[in-house]
Every structure is written in C-alpha cells, then in structure tokens.
Design a protein that fits this description.
2 helices, alpha+beta, 9-stranded antiparallel β-sheet
Length: about 210
C-alpha cells in the first residue's frame, strides 16, 4: 500500500512538472507574439529602421565605390612607379656608357704627353757635320735644350697637338727673341724638330732630323 502511494505521488509530480513546462512555453510564446505584434504596430520604429537600412546601404555603396576606385588608382600608380624606376635605370646605364666612352676618348687623346718620348735626342745642328745631343726630353714633359747655352723649357710651355705633334715656346727677354719648337715624331725614336726664331719683325726657320739614343 505504501509503495502504491509513493508511485502515485511520483506520477502526479511528473505530470505537474510537465504541465508547468507547457504553461511556461505557452506564456513565452504569447509574450513573444505580443512583443512582435507591438513591434509591427509601431510604425515610427519600423520607419526609423527602414531609414537606417537605407542609409547603411548607401554608405556601404559609397565605401565600395571609393575602395574600388582606390584599388584601381593604386594599381595604376604602382605601374607608373615601376615604369619610372625602369626608365631611371635605363637612363643611368646610358649615362654610365657615355661616361665610359668619354673616358676612353680622353685616355686616347690626353693620355700621351711629351714625356712619352723622354730621353736624349741627337741631331745635326745648323752648320754642324756630326750629330750632337741637342736636347733632352724629361719625364715631366719639360725640355732641356743643349744648343749653345743650356735652356730649360718648362712643361707649362709645351702644347700637345696630337700623339706625335707637340709645340714648345721660349722667350728670351734679354735679347727679345722668341723661339718656337715644333716636334713631329714619326716613331718612338725618330722625328723632326722645326725651330722658328723671331726677333722683332725678322724670323727664320730650320729643320733638324732627330734620333733618340
């Protein structure tokens, strides 16, 4: 009898819990329905939400347009920067090439000075029958003349015309005589020396074959 009573109370308790749960669900559904009904009946709120949605879509479209435009401009700018650097590299290479060619030309035209022919040069002075050491070309491109009194012509008085042609000048203020020396080399050891002596309005010229020994 006691077991039956406990079993009865157990079933009653379970049924009561079940009904309470169902009633709770019904109240929740009813509350949700009431809230939803109130929401749809509030036209002002619906209008404001609609406006918010429109504004949001408008702002989103503007953002997407600006973003896409920026992406395109960014791509174009990157391409332009790439082309600029490529052009800069090409111009730099051209400049280096031109500088290199210019240096080669300078080396070919200015590299050889009179010092290239440095040494003792012999020749027959005017009126002489035997060769004499008439001049010495020094390592600094200066010239030591040994015709008569020894005279040193500094390198600053020597002008290069070409690899084989040089002009030196000397002025003797004591006797007012200017002398121009023209060197024409046919080889490293052979050449001609042309001397032009001018005093006042009078000038005379003589040519001497010279040999390096």
């Amino acid at each position: 009898e006691q077991n039956r009573t406990e079993h009865y109370y157990y079933l009653l308790n379970n049924n009561l819990n079940f009904y309470i749960l169902q009633i709770s669900k019904a109240f929740k559904f009813l509350s949700a329905s009431i809230l939803l009904q109130k929401f749809f009946s509030n036209k002002k709120l619906i209008f404001e939400l609609s406006q918010f949605n429109q504004n949001f879509n408008f702002a989103r479209n503007i953002y997407l347009n600006v973003f896409n435009k920026y992406q395109k401009e960014s791509s174009i700018m990157k391409e332009q920067i790439k082309n600029f650097y490529l052009l800069l590299i090409i111009l730099s290479l051209i400049a280096l090439f031109l500088i290199s060619c210019d240096n080669k030309n300078k080396t070919g035209t200015e590299g050889r000075t009179l010092s290239y022919y440095a040494g003792n040069w012999w020749g027959k002075a005017s009126g002489e029958t035997a060769e004499e050491n008439i001049l010495t070309i020094n390592g600094d491109s200066s010239i030591t003349l040994k015709i008569g009194d020894e005279i040193i012509i500094p390198s600053t008085s020597v002008t290069r015309v070409s690899d084989t042609n040089y002009i030196a000048s000397y002025y003797n203020s004591t006797v007012n005589v200017s002398t121009k020396f023209t060197f024409n080399f046919s080889s490293d050891t052979q050449g001609k020396l042309i001397m032009e002596i001018t005093q006042g309005s009078t000038s005379q010229s003589s040519t001497i074959d010279i040999t390096k020994k």
